[in-house]
Amino acid sequence: EFMVTMAALRVFSMPCLLHPGVGALLTPCSVIRSFGAGLPRSAFRSRTVKAGAPPGAKGFSESATGWSAGAGAELRVQYLEAESTGIVVFGINRPQFKNAISKNLVKMMTEAIEEIKCDKNVRTVILRSEVPGIFCAGADLKERAKMQASEVGPFVSKARSLINELGNLPMPTIAVLDGAALGGGLEMALACDIRVAATSAKMGLVESKLAIIPGAGGTQRLPRIIGVSQAKELIFSGRVLDGAEAKAIGLVSHVVEQNEAGDAAYHRGLSLAKEFIPQGPIAVRLAKLAINRGMEVDLKTGLAIEEACYAQVIPTKDRIEGLNAFKEKRLPRYTGE
Questions:
Q1: Cross-strand partners of 48
Q2: Residues 89-108 as b or e (16 or more Cβ within 10 Å = b)
Q3: Among 25, 52, 99, which residue's Cα sits nearest to residue 286?
Q4: If both were cysteines, with which of 101, 140, 228, 282 could 223 make a disulfide (CB 3.0 to 4.6 Å apart)?
Q5: Is 274 helix (H, G, I), strand (E, B) or coil?
Q6: DSSP secondary structure letter of residue 139
Q7: Beta bridge mates, 198
Q8: CA nearest to 299, candidates 4, 12, 14
């Protein structure tokens, strides 16, 4: 019993997870970071862009406030507005390198995650590509070829840490795959809670073709998602699947026909994220925590974790608001408190 209790309590040991006195989640981070250009966050808040649209893309009607390290940034972070308020979009933007994971991209994504992970106003994060036809081609092998052997290990460790941080974000995360997600690119998607793909998307852990193994969580997350035998088959063969094949084995949750603009998966992911917004944000985060931690332990310990998480919602204002809204037959107005 002691071990079960301790395991349950450990779920609340993560930084930024608890709000003293209320037991609620996440207070806004007090430190504002700028990405790469040494500029304050406010410098980017003035640029209004279409909702996650790459330059020249069509079909986007919602507005968003974007901030990044300038027009040529390898990562663009956009805070959506209007009915999408609470959704943050990470857009990878390395067109000349097929969005391959570089030292700089790892740095920028790490800073972006650090920025939002303690922000209670962020309800959902969408990870997407701003480059048509590609999500992420994995590691930047041209950059890797220039590294000394002594540099490779530390770089892979930082990339692994980044993907772990992505997986540990307290709010829901959605990877939208409108193009190829290979190697480390698929490993990033595997770290997200939900994956949405276009039928034209390609995905696979292809590291065995380079005489290496997935090094950023692929050997652990893929079998947990699709089962051990199928994961072994895909990793051993380096096989690449399309969106429909990925849906058939449970690798992605939703698959959609690609549209002319090449952003069908993004639109489906955005629609899904909007379903999360009206729900109690503390409850959603604690549900994610209970599921994630519970999947790592036996059922008895998992139930203790669920009980501990449930106890955290009882003293919240949102719980009372939900009851009052039900009684008064109106929509609840949750504040994350």
A1: 65
A2: bbbbbbeebbbbbbebbbbb
A3: 25
A4: 228
A5: helix
A6: B
A7: 256
A8: 4
The DSSP annotation for 12-64 comes to T-STT--BTTTTB--PPPS-----SS---THHHHTEEEETTPPTT-----SEE
Please list the active-site residues: 139, 184, 187, 207
Show the tokens assigned to 35: 């990405």
Q: Give dist(CA 280, CA 270) in Å, integer.
A: 18
Instruction: Tokens for 13, please give them.
Output: 């040991």
Using DSSP, state whether 99 is helix, strand or coil.
Answer: coil
Which phi and psi (to 5°) does residue 275 adopt? -70, -25
Q: Which amino acid is at 45?
A: R
Taking Cα atoms as reference points, which of 193, 139, 204 lies closest to residue 166?
193
If we measure between CA atoms, which residue out of 58, 80, 55, 57 comes closest to residue 67? 80
Separation CA 66–CA 70 (nearest Å): 10
Q: Could you list the pLDDT tens digit for every one of the 337 residues in the chain?
A: 545 545 554 555 444 554 433 333 333 332 223 233 333 333 333 233 334 444 333 333 333 444 444 556 899 999 999 999 999 999 999 999 999 998 899 999 999 999 999 999 999 999 999 999 999 998 888 888 888 888 888 888 898 999 999 999 999 999 999 999 999 999 999 999 999 999 999 999 999 999 999 989 999 999 999 999 999 999 999 999 999 999 999 999 999 999 999 999 999 999 999 999 999 999 999 999 999 999 999 999 999 999 999 999 999 999 999 999 999 999 999 998 9
Return d(Cα 248, Cα 187) in angstroms, integer: 19
Which of 163, 164, 147 has the alpha carbon at shortest distance from 155? 147
Are 15 and 31 in contact by the 8 Å Cβ rule? The answer is no
The DSSP-derived string for 299-316 is HHHHHHHHHHHHHHHTT-
First to last CA, the chain: 31
Cβ atoms of residues 336 and 24 within 8 Å: yes
**What are the residues facing 177 on neighbouring strands?**
197
Q: Which two tokens stand for residue 233?
A: 């088959």
pTM as predicted: 0.82
